Amino acid sequence: MAEQRRHVEFFGPDFARGPVLSGSPAVAAVQIATQLAQLRAPLLRSDSDIESHAEFIRDLADRLFPDYAEIIRTDVGDEVSDTITTQIRVESAKYTLLHCWLADSPGGGETTFAPADVSFDTGTIIQTVSTNKQYLVLTPATGVVNVSVQYAGGYSWYWAVALHGRVYYSSALHFVQP
Q1: C-alpha to C-alpha distance for 60 and 34, rounded to whole angstroms
Q2: Could you tell me if 23 and 42 are in contact, meaning their C-beta atoms sit under 8 angstroms apart?
Q3: pLDDT-based confidence at 8, cuts 50/70/90?
Q4: What is the pTM assigned to this prediction?
Q5: Do residues 122 and 144 make contact, with C-beta atoms less than 8 angstroms apart?
Q6: 47, 63, 66, 115 from 106: Cα distances, Å
Q7: How far apart are the C-alpha atoms of 47 and 144, rounded to whole Å?
Q8: Residues 6+ apart with CB under 8 A from 93
Q9: Domains of the chain: which residue ranges?
Q10: What is the spatial distance between Cα 156 and Cα 171, in angstroms, rounded to a whole number?
C-alpha cells in the first residue's frame, strides 16, 4: 500500500491540495510550513539566505506538528586527558530511545575503527550493537545523554543519532596525536 502512495508538491493558490494528498503528517507539516514561509521571503538569492529560510521552514513545521519534531542537539566538548564528552539533547525532554553510532564522516554509517572506550555517563544502554561503536540508548526524563569517548591517538569521529528515521550528526570529535 505504501508503494501506491503519491507525494505531490503543490505550492500554488490551492492551499489544501499538497498537504491533503501527502497522507503523512510529517510531510504535510513541511508542505504547510513551506507555503506559509513563502509569505516571508518568496524569492531569495544568496546561499546563506536560502539556508536560513530552510531552517525557518523546518522550525515552523516542527511547531505545527510537535509530535513529528525530531529535534536532536549535540554539543561536543574539547579533548581532556584523551577523552571527549558529548552531550546529546532531545528537545522534547522526555524518555526517548535513540540509536547512536560513531561515524567517520557526516552522512556515514558505523565507523570501521573503534575508539579505546565509550561510556554513557547518563542515559541507559538498552543494547550494545557494536562494542565502542553503536548503541541503543534510553534518555532520562530530562532528555539529556552524556557520552564520553576515549582514545589516545589522532583520529576524528562524529556521533550519528537517529530518531524516527531522521539522523543528526554532531560536529567532529577530533583527537589530536600526542
Answers
A1: 9
A2: no
A3: very low
A4: 0.65
A5: yes
A6: 20, 26, 26, 17
A7: 33
A8: 141, 142, 143, 144
A9: 2-68, 72-175
A10: 10
CATH number of this structure's domain 72-175: 2.60.40
Cα–Cα distance between 125 and 118 in angstroms, integer? 11
| pLDDT tens digits, 14-45 | 555 554 555 677 677 777 777 776 666 656 66
Dist CA 17 CA 11 (whole Å): 9
How many angstroms separate the CA atoms of 46 and 155, rounded? 35
Give me the DSSP letters along the chain.
Answer: -GGG-------SS-TTHHHHHH--HHHHHHHHHHHHHHTT-S---SHHHHHHHHHHHHHHHHHH-GGG---EEEEE---BTTEEEEEEEETT-S--EEEEEEESSTT--B-SS--SEEEESSSEEEEEEETTTEEEEE--TT-EEEEEEE-SSSEEEEEEEEETTEEEEPPPEEEPP-
Yes or no: say if 18 and 38 are a contact pair by the CB < 8 Å rule: no
Residue with cell 584523551: 82
